[in-house]
Amino acid sequence: MGQLYQTQRAMRHMRKAAMQRGVIAILDVGTSKIACLVLRFDGDAPALDGVGSMAGQSNFRIIGAATTRSRGVSFGEVAAMAETERAIRTAVQAAQKMAGVRVDHVIATLSGARPRSYGLDGEVEVEAGQVTGSDIGRVLAACEMPDYGDGREVLHAQPVNFALDHRSGLADPRGQIGQRLTTDMHLLTVDATAIENLLYCIKRCDLEVAGLASSAYVSGVSSLVEDEQELGAACIDMGGGSTGISVFIRKHMIYADSVRMGGDHVTSDISMGLQVPMATAERIKTFYGGVVATGMDDREMIEIGGDTGDWEHDRRTVSRAELIGIMRPRVEEILEEVRQRLDAAGFEHLPSQQIVLTGGGSQIPGLDGLATRILGQQVRLGRPLRVQGLPQAATGPAFAGSVGLCLFAAHPQDEWWDFEVPAERHSARSFKRAFKWFKDNW
Predict the structure, then answer these.
(1) CA distance 241 to 224
(2) Which of 79, 277, 326, 376 is the most buried (most CB within 10 A)?
(3) How many domains does the chain have?
């Protein structure tokens, strides 16, 4: 446990140093694209109309942006090191060139990696009658650590709720008078190898990692509006190789998971169904795709095109209804998986159960209607918040993770390693994935 805790602390210090220098880059390493945005921090940038304080607009603007096609990443995890390293280098160099500055520090996001959520709680007596930072460190240390298994690392460890004596729902109890302090903490673990591979690729590009975040988490930060984060909502981020799920309440993430399927799997089904190359399948999906067929779609014919040299093969057409028939089963399968994860998280216990779809895969026409039917909740399509300097081309749902990562870089939430946590740890009792605090505390 100690080593990653130290790494995370070191990253936090590095982030502070980079912020003082005024420039930091964010790196969204996905299965279909790698995006790099360069942020400049200045204390007094004016806030934009229509952008709330949540956007952290007060202090950064994007001065460089680049995306490149991702290579060597599958299911949101690095599969081929050298290729991923090259793609990261391409994106970072292009963004630096546009920004006209050199960047040494990046904050990166991790999708896939089989995330697992745990709800922990701890309690201590307040030492001096008034809560201090050291009491917070002690109460976090009092949380029983789950035995989350070998080969796993903690990616996030966030106190999501404090209670002092009988007052629950405190965001920050420091300075308050009371005797008994309790906390609920959300712990997110991921495959250690996935973290190590990503860190290795970034270091090979001569960059220092100043932070790591779950891509499901940052997508929720940028796509859920303030009320949704407060009252309860889930963000479903449909990427190319994986679909991230995060659940928020009281402005904190309390659950995250991912489904190892995304838009690329839909493309692959089209490629096999129509016997066309992946690039052609992607084009057909983007221009003609959908999940709800109407009578019109039987008559709308799509030219497949091709360059095999076989005239008959290359001038085939397919009806849009047939295309939808290929796409819909896979999209339904992804949404069914998402529903199972939300059920496991106890999502139905939240006072509000809004669902927001985002990510590049969320742009399939008719998806929101299908999702409403399968997930059985109010579903809306989400676009990330507007942030200063973001190029028009990067304002769509495919950039929810990138924009969320900017907000995370500017305003990271308190995590366990931000406090002085006493070294003595309790033995880890067996621990079930508890979401009991839903019923008790909200």
Answers:
(1) 22
(2) 326
(3) 1
Residue at 410 is within a domain = no
Strand order of the β-sheet with 243-249 is 252-259, 243-249, 233-238, 354-358, 379-381
Reduced to 3 states, what is the DSSP secondary structure of residue 21?
helix
The pLDDT tens digits of the residues spanning 6-41 come to 788 888 888 888 888 889 999 999 999 999 999 998
Closest CA to 405 of 110, 102, 204: 110
d(CA 339, CA 374): 7
State both tokens at 181. 């302090």
List the structure tokens of 7: 């790494």
- Measured CA to CA, the distance from residue 18 to residue 103 in angstroms comes to 9
- CA–CA dist 28, 78 (Å, integer): 12
Q: What CATH number does residue 299 fall under?
A: 3.90.640
Please indicate, yes or no, if residue 138 is contained in any of the structural domains: no
Mind giving me the DSSP string for 119-166?
EEEEEEE-SSSB--HHHHHHHHHTSPPP---TTEEEEEEEEEEEEETT
Q: Looking at beta carbons, which pairs linking 54-59 to residues 24 or more positions away fall under 8 Å?
A: 54/226, 54/229, 54/385, 54/407, 55/385, 55/386, 55/387, 55/407, 56/406, 56/407, 56/410, 56/411, 57/387, 57/388, 59/410
Supply the DSSP symbol for 191.
Answer: E
The neighbour count for residue 428, using CB atoms within 10 Å, is 12
Does the residue 23 lie in any domain? no
| Greatest C-alpha distance within the chain | 84
Distance from C-alpha of 376 to C-alpha of 339, rounded to nearest angstrom: 9
Domain membership of residue 314 (yes or no) is: yes
Cβ contacts of 24 within 8 Å, gap of 6 or more? 15, 18, 38, 39, 41, 103, 105, 106, 107, 210, 409
Q: Of residues 67 and 411, which shows the higher confidence score? A: 67
Which residues span the domain enclosing 284? 263-323
- What does pTM read for this prediction? 0.89
Backbone angles phi, psi at 31, to 5 degrees: -80, -35
Angle at 9 between CA 7 and CA 11, to 5 degrees: 70
Mind listing the pLDDT tens digit for each residue in 178-207?
999 999 999 999 999 999 999 999 999 999
Q: Under a CB-based contact definition with an 8 Å cutoff, are residues 202 and 89 in contact?
A: no
| pLDDT at 336 exceeding the cut of 50 | yes
Distances (CA, A) of 302 to 294, 323, 363: 15, 9, 19
Number of helices (H) and strands (E), helices first, in the chain? 14, 18
**For residue 220, what are the CA distances in angstroms to 29, 250, 262?**
17, 13, 17
**Cα angle at 252 between 251 and 258, to 5 degrees?**
125
